[in-house]
């Protein structure tokens, strides 16, 4: 057994059932090919799952529908939180002590989901944390660095493979949504301080807000139709969206990272 000290800091631990359902739905949908392609039983990591192990349990329940032999590993830096998960362990679900080093006993991760983890770190710590986690990925592996509100109605995440960032996804509960740009308060740490004039992510959110306003005539047919029109307008305007109507109907929209990446990397001089 390794005596290496876990890398990272203890998070606040706030969690709720169903809080990460939007990201799980995306992993089981557009990203399911990563699980299916894995030549070995895939390992999916719930990093920093918090005071309750429920998100790891839900992650297994949702992704095992894609690949029945996958293993979900909840990794926490707080020993008490690991102990809380132990009674729920079974053949394909386990909990262990660790941090950004992601201890998997020599295995590589097909997915590392780190939600509401890097939010508490400084922006200049993001790149090094990403690098540590990317080093733990399998060849087709994916790192998801995300943030959401307390009940999971607003969520955003950056997806990265071993080479670097791929995309930014915004996912919102459309009912009673006033302006999709309100999701800005839940941007991942790499972007939240970049939502200022002159930065690409600010331009993207402003374009999203304008398109939503211009699509108001569709509101009489429901928020879903309005959001479909909004996303379609963004695509027509040249934003490199990576998904389509089947995802937009869910209040989800994914754009290429190249369109929203900071003018300089996190931590670099601006």
From TrEMBL:
<protein>
    <submittedName>
        <fullName>Class I SAM-dependent methyltransferase</fullName>
    </submittedName>
</protein>
<keyword id="KW-0808">Transferase</keyword>
<dbReference type="InterPro" id="IPR029063">
    <property type="entry name" value="SAM-dependent_MTases_sf"/>
</dbReference>
<dbReference type="GO" id="GO:0032259">
    <property type="term" value="P:methylation"/>
</dbReference>
<dbReference type="GO" id="GO:0008168">
    <property type="term" value="F:methyltransferase activity"/>
</dbReference>
<keyword id="KW-0489">Methyltransferase</keyword>
